[in-house]
Amino acid sequence: MRLSKRITNLTGGGSDGWDVFRRARAMEDAGKPVINLTLGDHDIPTDPDILHAMHEAALDGNTGYPLVPGADELRDAIAERVTERTGVPTGRNNVVVMPGGQGALFAAHAATCDHGDTALFVEPYYATYPGSVRGIGAIPKTVPARPEFDFQPQPQDIIDAIDMRTRSLLINTPHNPTGVVYSRETLEGIAKVMIDRNMWLISDEVYDTQVWEGEHLSPRALPGMADRTLVIGSLSKSHAMTGSRVGWIVGPEEAIDHLINLSTHTTYGLPAYIQDAAIYALEEGGEIEDDIAERFRQRRETALSILEKSNDFITVPSQGAMYLMLDIRNTGMTGEAFANALLDSELVGVMPGESFGESAAGHVRIALTVDEDQLREALTRLVRFAEAEARAA
């Protein structure tokens, strides 16, 4: 039987970008001592107090059908958080709870694009962005963010990518994979294009608690943007709750009403006992959140102290998120070749830049998701490998 083109074309007929990760995981499963810096998942477990709240809610019987938009208390807590962090007045009716940031990305594109419309996203990009667009029948198209501009997207590049059916632009700040935090100037330039061209902006802000330099500015806070911006949020990164799948979309009330209808016909909401744990995390978990952010801040400092001693690659300015991006073109290798050879020779797994689009070719991404001792060892091996390859180039 024939399957739909929509489902069989999610990856565009090519790799989904996770080949090196899968090789590293297979080597680990075979017993090899790989230090795996490929996946942006916490080595920090979800705090026991959050898990206790989830457990108690389940034992108390909160296991039936949930409220599809999200529990009122949870939506209120998210709205309060967004208001405090962005300065934009936000209420319950501006919020819909989603099964993780990934579910929110899919839903946001379903809300903004019809079949055959063009949906833009900035390259380098998180590996699931193109498939999220294809999954709702839209056409994915990239806007390059170039190394010479420190991966800050430029307005003219956005304008050049727009065609007659372009409806939306997806951005991500703090940024995965580069660790760049978009400046006010960058975001104001993006906002002007969105307003001038009457487009939706989808703003993926799941790393908003991980800002090491400067400050995070939500583009929804800029003049004229509140009614044309859908903000993606999540507890995955801020509270080490990746497996709990607590995400949300914040936007104008009309869009949220329709997104609630979409949830009714797809996921039918998030399990209620997980929502109770999310309420606890938002209302009582401030110290937990701060501790997680501080651990990644310390790991970033540790990593930079090792990497900056070498002249054989360039570290992309890392201002936020749990990643570092390295320009390894001085080795004469592609990011993919470097990542595969590093894994084979040094048992260190990193993601090739090409997994995130051609704008990141010749780069590799490091996830700071192991403890400091392992991180030091992995980066010492990486520096040794890069220096040997650069001498041979």
From TrEMBL:
Family: Belongs to the class-I pyridoxal-phosphate-dependent aminotransferase family.
Catalytic activity from the UniProt record: L-aspartate + 2-oxoglutarate = oxaloacetate + L-glutamate
Top-level enzyme category: transferase
Residue stretches making up the Aminotransferase class I/classII large domain: 33-382
Record-listed E.C. numbers: 2.6.1.-
Pfam families: Aminotran_1_2 (PF00155)
InterPro entries: Aminotransferase_I/II_large, AspAT/PAT-like, NHTrfase_class1_PyrdxlP-BS, PyrdxlP-dep_Trfase, PyrdxlP-dep_Trfase_major, PyrdxlP-dep_Trfase_small
CC cofactor: pyridoxal 5'-phosphate
Keywords: Aminotransferase, Pyridoxal phosphate, Transferase
Span of the signal peptide: none
GO molecular function: transaminase activity
PANTHER family reported for this sequence: ASPARTATE AMINOTRANSFERASE
Annotated protein name in UniProt: Aminotransferase
